[in-house]
Protein 1
Amino acid sequence: MSSSLKKIQQPIQEELKAFEKHFRQSMKSNVALLDKITYYIVQRKGKQMRPMFVFLCAKMCGGITESTYTAASLIELLHTGTLVHDDVVDDSLERRGFFSINALWKNKIAVLVGDYLLSRGFLLALDNNEYKHLQILSTAVKKMSEGELLQMEKARKLDIKEELYYQIIRDKTASLIASACSSGAASTTQDDEVIEKMRLLGEKIGMAFQIKDDLFDYGDLDVGKPRGIDLKEKKMTLPLIYALQKADKQTKRSIVNAIKKDSENPRKMMEVIDFVKQSGGLEYAHQVMKNYQQEAFDILNEFPDGEAKSSIIDLVNYVADRKK
């Protein structure tokens, strides 16, 4: 883990340690195969950014409670379940440098494990009478599914407008970070206005997070070489949408045709990447990301200063400045 993330975690270090036990316990099953797979999942956990948002928002909005641990476990169970399903949908054999569940145990088992994790999350909320958490997270899972399906439906046409792109990423990516922030607040206060502000904060951060991901596909403005994975998968990202909006009809047709018919051709994809760069697509997307980042800071400015608030500010900067 990077030193900047360790610094961000400082105000909630003890809580995150306690959360690990909480989370492991929430995955327990009487089925040996399931226990083996969930143990594997726990061993290869990622940065745990969503639980960090839960704890930091709770700390900023009142203080960490037992309900905060339930919210963090619920978020992580649902996030993990959707990732397991994503790997099946995308036919991915790797996740964070490890084999994916479907690579090791095949698709049928991976789908069932994803279902198990989602149901464990919902039961965790019900067992603790946390109906507000259940409502927040069920809404997030619904939006994530809608966002993915909307993207798939529109991907074939390759004519996504900017507004539709924002709707897709708001549902697909930002809704889970929004639910982490709002459930963190809901674990410590019943003030609906504060809970909604935290939801909006998470949404702004999630939008910035996804646009940063879009930029990685083109080598960002200052980071590494282009990946071109989104182009290969015919995903319409903000730099490309902007570049196509500015292009004349003929150029637009030839770029769209290249993506539709030659997405496996590295030379053709480099031509598309160069076209996006020359059209100012990266600068535009970078500016939009910065705008969302600023909107997140504007919401945070309404809250009193403290170590939790400072860590959230650092986390918002981390999301926009990260190198991978």
Note: The domain at 3-321 is CATH 1.10.600.10 (Farnesyl Diphosphate Synthase).
Protein 2
Amino acid sequence: MEGIIPHLRRPAKRRLEKKARRCREGALRIRYMIIVGLAEHASPTEVARSCLVSRKTVYQVALRFREAGEAGLVDRREENGGLKLDADFLALLYEVVQSAPVEHGWLRPTWTREMLVRTMFRKTGIRIDVTTMSRALARIGARRGRPKPTVNCPWSARARNRRLQEILDLLENLPEDEVAFWEDEIDIHLNPKIGLDWMVAGQQKEVLTPGKNEKRYLAGAQNCRTGELIWVEGDKKNTLLFLLVLWALVQRHREAKVIHVILDNYSIHHTEQVKRALETPEGSRLRLHFLPPYSPDHNKIERTWQDLHANVTRNHCQPDMNSLMKQVRTYLRRHNHRRQNPNLQTAP
């Protein structure tokens, strides 16, 4: 367009078009496209709309082209001095983000970008802007998430590792005529668990809660070889619920010489009823292998329960417990169907 950029002959316009097509740097390609658009007599508003930039950017690029020609379109960031977000800076930032603010003299227990800027300045002498810190955090793959609450195992590290290794050895050397299961219980609440969800700008989704909560409980056993799940349901999480899932294992695997059950140290797993049940002819085939205290990450069925919450109970909109339990059963049946047919594509 006359008055914004000098008149370009057709060969010059074609050269810029070719460079725009071949350019791999996104920002430079957009600057080429802006000049090409203006050279085709499009208005700044039309160029801004087609290039997805502001009118201010169009005028700035035109000014650079008017002052320095094609060379004015090249990125000028090399004039800013040395690169601040170099490999050493990012590596140190990665370590800082992994640590807690209190380790660096802060009273606040969680990081903010401003705190990171000041901490990195103290350690490196390099001062950056908060927006630059955002880019640095993206470069190292940092994200904001919910910390996971944990409890320290009261056992010594040696004893804990020895028990975990015994369980791994059991699974690696499991005879063909024996089976092993991960066992655990899960609470199903009518009041939905509230979790993260995608929302558009200015929106906050609402999750309708029934108000008065109801609970159901599942005891499940997941096959260590196949991943298939056997589960029972109950109104209470007690010894009877645990015995029901053990009975289901015994009935389902009559051919198994030994049924190994790997489980946590919940009180219902240690009652006198359980001891007596294991002394019966049917129960004598069961072997209970207890994980170290507070070791949920080593019980593989926990991941299945997490998936159940993510796909069914979190932010759910079921009006009553019967409807919610129907959804739970459907999901668990699909889980087993996928394990039995691993190559089958199933609907979400």
Note: The mean pLDDT is 90.
Protein 3
Amino acid sequence: MAFDSLAKAATPLLEVSNLSVAFGKHTAVDAVNFYLAAGEVVVILGANGAGKSTLLKSLGGMVQPHPGAQVSVQGNGITGVPAHLVVEAGVALVPEGRGIFGELSVRENLLLGGFAKRAREELEQNLGQVFSLFPRLQERQAQIARTMSGGEQQMVAIGRALMSKPKVLMLDEPSLGLSPILSKEVFRAIARVAQSGVGVLLVEQNARLSLAIADRGYVMENGRMSAGQPAAAMLQDSGLQRSYLGGTKQSQETVPGISQPKASTPLATAAPRGQAADDAVAAARRVVADIPLARWVAEATQRAQVPSGHAMAERGPHPAPRVATTDSQTLDTVCQSIEAISQRARVGTSLDTGRAEPHASVAAAPRVEVWRRAEVEVYKRNSTGQMVKE
């Protein structure tokens, strides 16, 4: 049983049925059906080219749907209505790429959003609500929009749409190009907009962040839309996790295309291969995991001062702690491996084959250019007509 039939309101705020859009022979949106309730956040997920942006443009009056489509806002049909009349009906679209006027100030961009007849009488009130939602815009009313950061420009775009006092707010990729911190700030603002009773239709690639604030979600593939599901259920759906959420913690290792971080390998593994070397590496791993770094440093410092093979002498008023005999033997193995690596690096040989690598040889000393300050000599003509230096 589809979730839509269980949760559908008696009179949805926005209702879409049998909506199709084609460009020539290519069908971008194929018989889409969904609804949006007041105060609800609905997210549409899908890969690039699935038809999500075309769907929003069709709802916003920018693209004409095929005959037979039905789009209504609170029961009033807006199918095929021009874009400016869609705004008057209470539907506002924040397009991908923001589309703000870069040469105008923040305040001028916002006031342009309040040009709709339905919002003119409450212009200052709507402006105050936008500033309450985005205090940063109030601080920067006079700033030229193009000089703002990407996140601030996105706030301007959302604020401009809210100035039309919409019933339905549609956003196309609001987090595109934003840092994680700014993305979270924008999504918190979107959640606050929905709390005010505005229905929010969200197209977003950041599936995890969008589902975190959404009530329901749909998935579009090749122009077709799946039945709606609760956002919480979509977060737990293993198929959606593999497709849009990066896979589950349990399945990440088996999901194709996800590279796993490699375990760190001790330097001792670069020693010559053989059973003895493998045993030494295994012993080194066990010992290194149990010995504090400070003890390794103290041991290495003393070994640098005492010739190899001599007993370690404890010096000074604060002698360094000794490492057990087994630990010392393991440290010998590690140090020998490090020394072998260093020698091979100095002569430019491969660790695997031992042959010389021309590109690994020591680089020539860098060229140093010394620039001297230019001197200017000034000459003038004396009383006898000769040029003399001042």
Note: Residues 325-347 form the longest helix (23 residues).
Protein 4
Amino acid sequence: MFPRLRFQLSILILLGIVIGCPQSNQTPSETETQTVHNGLPRIVVTSQPLLQLTQTIVGDAADATMVVPDDTSPLDWSPTSADAEIMQQARLILINGAGYEPWKDRVSLPGSRMRDTAAGYYDQLIRIPDAVSHQHGPDGPHSHPGTVWATWLDPELCIAQLHQVSVNCGRLLPERKQSIETAEARLAAELNSLNVMIDTIKATDSDEIPAVFSDAPHYQYLTRRLGWTLSYLHWDLAGSLSDANRRELLDAFSANPTDTLTQNSRPLFLLDSRHSADTEDFVRKSGGTVVRIDLCEAASPESTSLPNRMKQNLQRILDAIDK
């Protein structure tokens, strides 16, 4: 072989070795870093109740994370490109449905990995015929979709949602299917026990259906289970009520059909627990019995479980009507 040809072949062989060898500082692909977190498959959820249900179901077998910041409602959230990328690369995306994620139609998400956990009870969703335009923060006036979204306030719907979480997590983690189903059964039993309290409340007010009002329509799945008709207002979570809000409440109370109440009865007013003490005080002075309701949209500062938060809501209702 000619020296020049031998030299050229040597160069080609050397280049092949360099190109073919893996580099010691090579980083994992983007898919690997996103779909696996701390060595676990990533499940992205879009609500605090879903986060608690999923974490309880999968335990340490997956990384369940809520992509929406805890101080923001999924109704008002707009995902950034980085948020969208996290969802796009997750192994499983669980959404609440019932109109709780209006932004999802503006983001390209993998349909094969996104699951609507309200899929089992579409026929039980409650529409809001008078959804109004209002403003939260700097994004300007907007309207929330005309569906009541706090489905989990009804233990039966929460159990149905839990089942959807269990089924989809079982498909993602087939090797953990038995432990997932065991965790589902345990949590479903805890949620089902809340129906005893609901029956107690219904028995307590069986002779007198209370006139029930609220600051928003979010409570309708719960009031439907209690057999109550809810008259709702449309109040934002502001530091204090506007003059229009105050007039709205006084008009609602004055239009109350008093013939359905005993002489000593007062309207029952369900108030988002995040409202100010001044707002609660105004409702009381206007003649209402206030029951603060934890909508479970944000994480509990005391790390209280979802079933216990729901139980506390029912206990506050029972205390109010049993006086």
Note: The chain has two domains: 30-123+144-191, 194-321.
